[in-house]
């Protein structure tokens, strides 16, 4: 990771409303997963770069937080229009650096844009409460005020959507923001910065720094950064949460997942199988809301597994920008090899390998990071392919005897991001949504990602912190509440030393 050769363009940072060179001497490769080729290089920011971004954000904060919410909302409206205008370019950037199909990338861009649309309503979202005459001639009201400089640390799997879940809400609330995107997919964040500037956002309100753990640690320890949002693996989420807490920062850290889909005997099996294929193998399984574990209840497992195998084997795997591709490559060669090792481990531990995706070669893209859809049956809870988040195109099937056993199985898992149930029985679905200990629940919906005006987040080891992302909880996270109790006396009163009562 020395200074890059001129053959590949070196990406800049975005600080104070302009592209700037990093002060670091460390760099990394950005690859196209479909071909395995290095397409550009990215600097790994150091503490001096973080200081520069914090300085720019700090200088911009006073004026920005005093900007009326209505004007901030109008900038978000213009930003939304520019996102719509440049949707195709953003989509292609995601596919180029991540590998997912254009259709999948476009859908993720749309889901991010919906949070920007939500943020356009910031004047209403920031309204406090007011109570008149809580005591004689005394009124009480609450205010929501910006925190200051906030930071977001985002994952490789959603280079546009997850950043858009964070910074539009933070900025609309009057904060300034520093984004540290994944170094594997850095380009989309720089383009978002350009669109924000075109929309009229003042310089310094939004900044982008690239990097690895050195940049992350500089953010976590910087005394001027007041809040940190993170999406990634559970071990890193726990580290971010604990480090931020030690440094007095507000933090929301979303971790990993092992999302279960419970299929009851009365479910429409064809519909359930189609839904599970999309939820398991879309984006090559690189989604924190991917269904990775199917819980087959009763005697349906054989027929369900037969359907899943046939549908998975028929999926077209190839470059994400090819017209007929349904599943693209994984993000890096190292990650592809890691997932393949889990397949080997599943076999060794006694699971039945129904469909093996290893060894897949795509003509003309032999150096790409491909792994075909993989399916396991007869998986037991103690196996590594069940315990761990694999984050790849590996779907496992566990068999249980009844509905109650299915609920116990899901609730024992330490991850609790999302879950789903497939059934035609309303009473059982209602029991499931009430008893299941998971943050997001789908009923005949395999990927229950809430709309922007609700909040996204899991339970247990899938979330560290009290508040979820975007929606009303996002507004709460990026603001502080202040309560004012007010009286305007009309006559001179004698001082009182006792506790005030009304």
Secondary structure: elements and pairs:
Blueprint: E1 13-15, E2 18-20, E3 27-32, E4 37-43, H1 47-66, H2 69-85, H3 87-98, H4 102-119, H5 122-125, E5 130-135, E6 138-146, E7 149-153, H6 161-172, E8 176-180, H7 187-199, E9 206-208, H8 213-221, E10 225-231, H9 234-246, E11 250-254, E12 259-263, H10 269-281, E13 291-297, H11 301-313, H12 333-348, E14 352-355, E15 374-377, H13 384-387, E16 394-400, H14 403-412, E17 415-416, E18 418-422, H15 426-435, E19 440-443, E20 459-460, E21 463-464, H16 471-477, E22 479-487
Parallel strand pairs: 7-8, 7-10, 8-9, 10-11, 12-13, 12-18, 13-16, 15-16, 18-19
Antiparallel strand pairs: 1-2, 3-4, 5-6, 6-22, 11-21, 14-15, 17-20
Could you explain how this protein is built, in words?
The protein is α/β, with parallel strands linked by helices. It has two domains: 13-255 and 462-483, 3-Layer(aba) Sandwich (Aldehyde Dehydrogenase, Chain A, domain 1), CATH 3.40.605.10; 259-443, Aldehyde Dehydrogenase, Chain A, domain 2, CATH 3.40.309.10. It contains 16 helices and 22 strands. The chain has helices at residues 47-66, 69-85, 87-98, 102-119, 122-125, 161-172, 187-199, 213-221, 234-246, 269-281, 301-313, 333-348, 384-387, 403-412, 426-435, 471-477, and strands spanning 13-15, 18-20, 27-32, 37-43, 130-135, 138-146, 149-153, 176-180, 206-208, 225-231, 250-254, 259-263, 291-297, 352-355, 374-377, 394-400, 415-416, 418-422, 440-443, 459-460, 463-464, 479-487. The strands form six sheets. The chain has a seven-stranded mixed β-sheet, with helices on both faces. Strands 9-8-7-10-11-21 form a six-stranded mixed β-sheet, with helices on both faces. It has a three-stranded antiparallel β-sheet with strand order 5-6-22. α2 (69-85) runs antiparallel to α4 (102-119), α2 crosses α7 and α10 packs across α11 (301-313). The protein is globular, with a radius of gyration of 25 Å. The model is unreliable at 1-6 (pLDDT under 50).
